[in-house]
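INTERNAL AUDIT FORM
Audit reference: QA-55
Scope: verify that the stored structure record matches its stored sequence.
Auditor: D.O.
Record contents follow.
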Amino acid sequence: MEKLPMTRAGATALEVELKKLKSEERPAIIQAIAEARELGDLKENAEYHSAREKQGFIEGRIKEIEGVLGLAEVIDPTKLSGSIKFGATVTLVDEDTDEEKTWQIVGEHEANIEKGLLNIKSPIARALIGKDEGDSVEVRTPGGEKSYEVLKIEYI
C-alpha cells in the first residue's frame, strides 16, 4: 500500500474527528436508534430509517479515517528546506493580475483551499514541486493557463 503524506496538523485533525465520532456521535446514534425502535412499526418509522442512515455514514467515516491514519506518513515541514516540496508554504504572485496567494502544500485528506491548504495532487502543487524562489511556473488549470512567480518558500 502506498503511504499517504500528511502534516502533523492534518493527522491531529483526523485523530480528533475520529475520537469525536467514536465517543460522541456513535453512542448518540445508537441511542436514537433504540428510541426510534420503541415507537413501533419499523417499516413506516422515519426516525428509525433516518438514524440508521446516519449510523451508516458515521461507521463509514470511522473506517475511512482509520484507513487513512493507518497509511499516513506524518512529515514535519519544519525539518525541511530548499526547493518546493511537500509541506512547503509558498507565496506566489499571479503574473497576469499581480495578486499574491499563499498556500501550504499538504496531503489530499487535509487539503482545504479556503484555508490555504493545497492538495499535493492538484495541478498547481504538481507544477510547483522542485521550483525555487524567483522561478516562473506555468499551470494548466480547469480555468485555463495560469502563470505564477514564486516569491517565497517557507517550511513552518
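Auditor finding: record pair retrieved intact. The beta strands are 4-7, 72-75, 89-94, 100-106, 117-119, 136-141, 144-154.
Action required: none
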